[in-house]
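REQUEST ID: PR-0412
SUBMITTED BY: lab tech R.K.
PRIORITY: routine
TASK: structure prediction, single protein chain
INPUT:
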Amino acid sequence: MTPAGSILIDLHHRFGNATGVQIASSRPDTVAQVLIGKTPEQALDTVPLLFTLCGNAQAYAALLACRAALGMATEPDIDSARELLVQLETLREHAWRILLDWPLFIGLAQDKTALATLLKFDALFKRHLFRHGEAFKLDSRLDVDAAQLTKLIDALEALIDVSIFNGRLADFQALTCEAQLLDWLWRNDALPAKLLNYLYSQDWGMTGQNDIACLPKLDAEALNRQILREDLTTFTRIPRWQGRCFEVTLLNRQWSQPLISEMRRHYGNGLIVRMLARLLEVALIPFQLRQLLAQIKNDAALPINNTASNGIGLAQVQAARGLLIHRLALRQGRVHDYRIIAPTEWNFHPEGVVAQGLKQLTAQSLNDLQRQAELYINAVDPCVQYALNLTDSRNEIEAHA
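STATUS: complete
OUTPUT:
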């Protein structure tokens, strides 16, 4: 695999108050460059080898971009099956954060057993959805075993109910307001309840609240025009839309859910809203998997937002961490240019939602400031490793005196 790079975050503070943030990324452009000169088929074989995170979403975006560039017709039923795999992957990525990261914030043991079980579902779903388990090829074919898939979804839901919600999944799915949430927290000792209670006890619900808006749904043709106007490399590294920074996190997808909408009135886009959005997405994915399975069986159309023009293909896919964009250009049947704009480019933009959120932090101690920053970065969730450095602004002033 091509090295993924990392993100360096410098948080400057004074007396526990953030005074400035610098974010620098060493994420390489070489991932996409590996694909130059390959045929579409070769590129699609290569993409899954390049990404250890969100491999299904990356493969799906690559496939949609290739199909668009080649002028191939849409495949509504097969794309519903592919979307099902992306949703399954999203659940796994969220569970990774919840089961491995969240315990560390409150001094609890990690649950690696449940996560190991979750990892086995991807191959099983592919086996019962596609011929030979091949989901992301130009000639993929469905081979659906609906009965087995239904059992797998039921087993998946039971696993997250026990491992994440401590048997209270159905109760969590029904929450629509903060009063109900507080009652659920009081009656539950599941890991998420303990973390959320910790945020309440520290009065950190609004931590990181800022004015960066969620990216609106982008028309593919308009997006392609803006990419060309701004320069491909610039948009790939530090994307903006119509001159503004936006966030493309999972909060975008849960923005209008009743519980999230209610919590936003009190906490804006602060930390507790982001944590709840992840938890709610996990809770709702089994239902979405059942809907997608029904679409496959009923041959229902799944809208695909991609575009093609003169051998150029652009695709947008909602990956676990947010909007993923692939854009490629074909010349004489081979990849001439390939660009990937991952969610991290939007969310960890030097002036983006993480930078603006960290600037709002205030704490009673250096340890609390660091914990707030780590919680907030975890909630937005980069797809690469990051390093957080805290620098006392008073020392900087003295050094320049």
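NOTES: Residues 329 and 383 are 25 Å apart (CA to CA).
REVIEWED BY: pending
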